[in-house]
């Protein structure tokens, strides 16, 4: 009897042990990911599942207890005990909106400590120990204190260099991951076809092919080849979709576009990065032909998942689920909006309140099913397992201290700024200047303002980390050169102007360098809405801030604001050689500068090394080859003016062509194009030409391939970029440049929204800009190509 009892006890112990081991299957690193996901889901309560879908703001989740110490905040502990969460957004973000400064925010080492502490609490003090995802802003560098600040999107786009953008993204990924974060918001894949819109600076420009190629490189740079290697993060391209063409240029306004334009242009970059393996995606605030993007089931499920085979998870934008009810009024309340978003395919709620406060009730009332919730949770857990967070959720703070903002990363920032600066005019070869020049007057509101050259989504900076144009000039010229400086005026405010001082130093100098433009620099006086967008102040009694661009700062005109044009006119009247540099977040009015300046450049927002990069170009240490990723209009009355519309009839009171066309940019040398060859082969078209550097110095040329479908069943662009190459050619050297056009490059969406390549004649155009075609030929496609799998039906 005693033996029997012992046997039963042992048997029970074994059964309990086996059950316990079975319940811990999700912790078994050798188990297949799908088995781990299924096991963990089976153990989770409804509340724990909903928590995984919530990504609230994170900058209040830590308490800085000393110069070298940080602990989880009481708020963090309360939230994690009330409902363990899937992750946090912008935990390390510092800016006027978050009220985090250089003193109250975290340096890289302390940031790594902070996220380790938050992760440790989560793993050790929640029931299932599911590690957190930390998501951060990474569009032009990790938006945290002490990181490298790269040029913003337009500057990146102006490089026309996918390889360099991948190198930059790898640096951003490393800096972000070493501090403990796992997801980087970027790149921005919106097409900037409305320059009055406040977020143009974040984009790669107006063209879908340029945006797609740079976007793929950005995604590949962030994600790398092994997401477990501790050096890479998941990429979150945004905003899905058609966010960059808001009515009236108002941020978040509706996009009134047809289905064919949506798929041919605005969705193309997202389709390409999905095929390249992107793992997360973010929706947008706008509605598309009346359907909110965050509730667009057709795009998020039928297209993104079913047709494109996306296998990651989808974020809402901050507050965009609430906007389904509040802004768009297509739901009676946030509970119904949350149900609509979840069923449409939005897995993660950025902000967390819409899902966290409403999904349980929506489930009880039958607005959503448990399967809806399980599917979304599985999409998030899967990526946590694939990254290896259950096995190794922590990072080494010493690594963050050593490698974040390294000299290598600074050099990459400088190179992106150099390659992304566009020379628009250079009369009589004024540039490059000799470094031994006797004197130079550096003037303008953006000549020595660190924040004005960094763009939106930038953390507070130590002054010593940023090289302004004035800094760059002083370091570049001979010790004997006299460098004089005057601000002249502000960007917007006119009470600070001292144009006379600027004119006086200009008259005493051999050459004038005027730096004008705009600013996305936030300050602590600016008020912000819940999404973080800035609000435009109307108190005219106060000194106006420089900020006229950046999220929430839409424009009704593109003119230089304040007294900047007066300053330009006064300096031009001195008769001294005048170089004008625009530092800007959108293509501003350059009509006056294009006439009166002897040399004209745009550097967009060139980042922390912008002053070095601009000086490199001005004094001949670098031969410029940046090309415009957007058209520069002559007036807002021309809008839209993007290049693929083709040539339009002139207006009664002015021309219709842009001042500077898409793809345009000058060099200090010249290039000749010859020997165009077009060969149609079985499944592709091979195009090649010869490019020769006929000038006196080595330089880069951006060779651009455009195509026109001469007769098509639906309207197609008269000119459309299909490929490009940025190549370096030594003086007197010739290089052969080859392109391959596939059937997909030639395809269109026909009247049935089927994507096919139609038979007929196509024109090939190769040139140095959309307005500067050097070679042209045509070829025939003789047979129909069957509809592709991703046809829209």
UniProtKB/TrEMBL annotation:
Q: This protein's superkingdom?
A: Bacteria
InterPro entries assigned: Cellulose_Degrad_GH3, Fn3-like, GH, Glyco_hydro_3_AS, Glyco_hydro_3_C, Glyco_hydro_3_C_sf, Glyco_hydro_3_N, Glyco_hydro_3_N_sf
Which PANTHER family does the annotation name?
BETA-XYLOSIDASE, PERIPLASMIC BETA-GLUCOSIDASE-RELATED
Q: Which residues form the Fibronectin type III-like domain?
A: 701-770
Q: Which family would the database say this protein is a member of?
A: Belongs to the glycosyl hydrolase 3 family.
Entry protein name: Beta-glucosidase
Keywords of the record, alphabetical order, are: Glycosidase, Hydrolase, Signal
> Taxonomically, what lineage is the organism?
Bacteria, Pseudomonadati, Bacteroidota, Bacteroidia, Bacteroidales
Organism from which the protein derives: Proteiniphilum saccharofermentans
């Amino acid at each position: 009897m005693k033996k029997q009892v012992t046997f039963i006890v042992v048997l029970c112990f074994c059964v309990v042990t086996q059950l316990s081991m079975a319940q811990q299957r999700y912790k078994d690193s050798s188990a297949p990911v799908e088995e781990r996901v299924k096991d963990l889901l089976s153990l989770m309560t409804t509340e724990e599942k909903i928590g995984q879908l919530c990504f609230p703001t994170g900058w209040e989740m830590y308490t800085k207890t000393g110069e070298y110490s940080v602990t989880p905040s009481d708020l963090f502990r309360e939230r994690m005990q009330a409902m363990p969460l899937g992750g946090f957004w912008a935990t390390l973000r510092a800016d006027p909106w978050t009220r985090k400064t250089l003193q109250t925010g975290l340096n890289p080492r302390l940031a790594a400590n902070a996220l380790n502490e938050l992760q440790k609490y989560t793993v050790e003090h929640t029931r299932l120990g599911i590690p957190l995802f930390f998501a951060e802003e990474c569009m032009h560098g990790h938006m945290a204190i002490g990181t490298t600040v790269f040029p913003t999107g337009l500057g990146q786009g102006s490089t026309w260099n996918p390889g360099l953008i991948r190198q930059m993204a790898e640096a951003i990924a490393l800096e972000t991951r070493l501090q403990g974060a796992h997801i980087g918001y970027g790149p921005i894949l919106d097409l900037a076809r409305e320059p009055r819109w406040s977020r143009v600076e974040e984009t790669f420009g107006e063209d879908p092919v340029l945006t797609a190629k740079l976007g793929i490189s950005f995604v590949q740079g962030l994600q790398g080849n092994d997401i477990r290697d501790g050096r890479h993060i998941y990429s979150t391209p945004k905003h899905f979709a058609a966010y960059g063409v808001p009515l009236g240029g108002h941020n978040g306004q509706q996009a009134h576009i047809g289905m064919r334009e949506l798929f041919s242009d605005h969705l193309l970059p997202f389709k390409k990065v999905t095929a390249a393996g992107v793992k997360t995606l973010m929706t947008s605030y706008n509605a598309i032909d009346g359907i909110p993007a965050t509730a667009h089931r057709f795009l998020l499920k039928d297209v993104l998942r079913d047709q494109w085979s996306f296998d990651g998870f989808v974020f809402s934008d901050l507050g965009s689920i609430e906007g389904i009810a509040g802004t768009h009024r297509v739901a009676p309340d946030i509970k119904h909006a949350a149900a609509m978003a979840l069923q449409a395919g939005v897995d993660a709620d950025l902000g967390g309140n819409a899902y966290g406060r409403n999904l349980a009730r929506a489930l009880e009332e039958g607005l959503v099913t448990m399967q809806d919730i399980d599917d979304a949770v599985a999409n998030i857990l899967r990526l946590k397992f694939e990254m290896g967070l259950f096995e190794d959720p922590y990072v080494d703070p010493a690594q963050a201290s050593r490698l974040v903002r390294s000299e290598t990363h600074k050099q990459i920032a400088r190179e992106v700024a150099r390659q992304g600066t566009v020379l628009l005019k250079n009369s009589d070869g004024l540039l490059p200047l000799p470094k031994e020049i006797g004197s130079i007057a550096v003037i303008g509101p953006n000549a020595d303002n660190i924040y004005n050259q960094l763009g939106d989504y930038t953390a507070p900076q130590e002054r010593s980390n940023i090289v302004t144009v004035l800094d760059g000039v002083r370091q570049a010229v001979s010790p004997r050169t006299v460098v004089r400086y005057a601000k002249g005026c502000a960007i917007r405010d006119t009470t600070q102007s001292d144009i006379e001082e600027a004119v006086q130093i200009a008259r005493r100098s051999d050459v004038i360098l005027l730096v004008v433009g705009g600013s996305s620099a936030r300050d602590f006086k600016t008020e912000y809405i819940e999404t973080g967008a800035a609000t435009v102040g109307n108190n005219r009694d106060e000194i106006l801030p420089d900020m006229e661009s950046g999220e929430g700062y839409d424009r009704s005109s593109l003119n230089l604001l304040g007294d900047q044009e007066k300053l330009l006119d006064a300096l031009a009247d001195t008769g001294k050689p005048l170089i004008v540099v625009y530092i800007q977040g959108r293509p501003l009015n350059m009509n006056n500068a294009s006439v009166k300046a002897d040399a004209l450049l745009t550097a967009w927002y060139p980042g922390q090394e912008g002053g070095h990069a601009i000086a490199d170009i001005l004094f001949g240490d670098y031969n410029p080859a940046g090309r415009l990723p957007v058209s520069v209009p002559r007036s807002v009355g021309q809008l839209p003016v993007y290049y693929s519309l083709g040539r339009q009839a002139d207006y009664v009171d002015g021309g219709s062509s842009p001042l500077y066309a898409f793809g345009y940019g000058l060099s200090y040398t010249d290039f000749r194009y010859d020997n165009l060859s077009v060969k149609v082969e079985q499944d592709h078209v091979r195009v090649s030409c010869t490019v020769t550097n006929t000038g006196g110095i080595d330089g880069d040329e951006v060779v651009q391939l455009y195509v026109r479908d001469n007769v098509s069943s639906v309207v197609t662009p008269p000119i459309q970029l299909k490929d490009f190459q940025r190549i370096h050619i030594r003086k007197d050297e010739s290089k052969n440049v080859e392109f391959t056009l596939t059937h997909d490059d030639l395809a269109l969406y026909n009247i049935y929204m089927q994507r096919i390549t139609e038979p007929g004649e196509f024109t090939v155009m190769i040139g140095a800009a959309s307005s500067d075609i050097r070679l042209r030929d045509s070829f025939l496609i003789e047979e129909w190509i069957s509809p592709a799998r991703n046809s829209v039906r």
